[in-house]
Amino acid sequence: MGSQYMYSALPTTQPASDNMDRIASTSTAAPDGYPLHYSDTVDGHKSNGDHDDTDLELANSATALRQDFDHDLQTRTYRVYKARWFGLVQLVLLNAIVSWDWLTFAAVSDTSAKFFRVKSTGINWLSTAFLFAFALSAPATIWVLNKYGPKASITIASVLILIGNWIRYAGAAVDDGYFYVVLTGQLLIGLAQPFVLAAPTRYSDMWFSDAGRVGAVAVTSLANPLGGAIGQIVGPSFASKPSDVPNMVLYVSIISSAATIPSLFLPAKPPSPPSARAEAPKLDLHAALRQLPKNGSFYLMLAPFAVYVGCFNATSSLITQIFHPYGISEDDAGLAGGILIIAGLVASAIISPIVDRTKKHLWAVKILVPIIAIAYTVLVFMPLTRDIVGPYIVCGALGAASFSLLPVALDLLTIVTFPVSPEVSSVVAWTGGQLLGAIFIVVMDQLKGGWDGEPAKTMLTSLIFQAGMAWLVVPCALLLGVWRFKKIIVGSDSHVVGTPPP
Fold first, then answer.
1. I want to staple 229 with a disulfide (CB 3.0 to 4.6 A). Which of 160, 341, 347, 437 is the partner?
2. Where would you find the membrane-spanning parts of this chain (predicted)?
3. Cis peptide before 270 (omega within 30 of 0)
4. Angle at Cα 70 formed by Cα 55 and Cα 14, nearest 5°?
5. CATH 1.20.1070.10 fits 84-485, yes or no
6. Higher pLDDT, 39 or 162
């Protein structure tokens, strides 16, 4: 009868602080110096009745995983290895390249449409199909990362990127281009994306200590939009007229091919774990997939993450079409997309180390999520100014808040879902974001026009839709850590604090 708890023994090395960031949901005390890692099966409220057999099985399974791990943990020393930087750099390269590949044509949508003799909707489908492909390979990504680790995932992504790029070039190199051949190559690259985009949380957990994990996730995850920024800025210079499109695809294919080569030389794993969390046993994949749907805190973090990734993907893909009807050139719109991303990278480089040191995950989430919603609201009015200065400022603010949130949210997801292995929550979250991005692109494309006195292809209604979606998930972030959504959160690998539920 009553609640079943699973313990995880992690050494306490510093005083506990910041109840906002470490939420406890149990009145059962752990042994001195060891935090509890699992609350109740109902997000922190004690059950009034018996748990079913499945819940007891999961609880007993997680407890058993730790029994051989706990007894000598306090005397264990950990170290990190220089080889971790090699894999980190390769993840940065591949995440940047796969995003550049995604936005190759979106950055010059009008020029590409003329070359392939299709409407702008056809060019949008090069981005949309890429995002849908993510969902197709997501289950395989979870399995590969869980069973074989980051090296296998990176290798698979490299092969798909290599093949996909040269198929795209084959389709673009012929007279007037074979659009559907290009689309096939784009789909292959889309299948590659989850293998590198979802790998950073698993890679950082395997190779980095407590003090560097959020930073490692930030560097590798944010390399993805960095590639998009490169595509937005460089694309118009590579293809200023329709006849330049084949050469643009060739240049990108050569760069992408070069970026895949180092994958062959990555070490599979470190000789020893870098932290207690890395060494702590995780649930097997089957048990993890059964436990994750029961975690209310996971849904509260998943909702804003997926919606904001979807909004960002839609904005990045459609940015030329958002501003071009109001007389803003492809070059200026592309630069706005670049500012969106570069400002985000700078802001994240400042925020991520601060969160790494202070462990203020929840404070960061609860501040950044409303700021992002406000930025999407202001973006609605920017095309109406018919001037580029306002869009530059708003895109910079939107990018800064969005990119600062990204690594913090990913690390928080791994914390609230422990002992589920990091790649499971990461892949699920990214898949949600990519699917919503694809859906938002389709919806926003269909919402063009319809305003008297505005250009025929105005995306004003589309931007209002996007702002509404951004506000819809704000309450989810604000509910994290309160009421029935209290959940054990480890502020670092060394301590946890909080108050029991009523």
1. 341
2. 85-103, 123-145, 152-171, 177-199, 211-233, 248-268, 298-323, 335-355, 362-382, 388-412, 424-443, 463-483
3. no
4. 105
5. no
6. 162
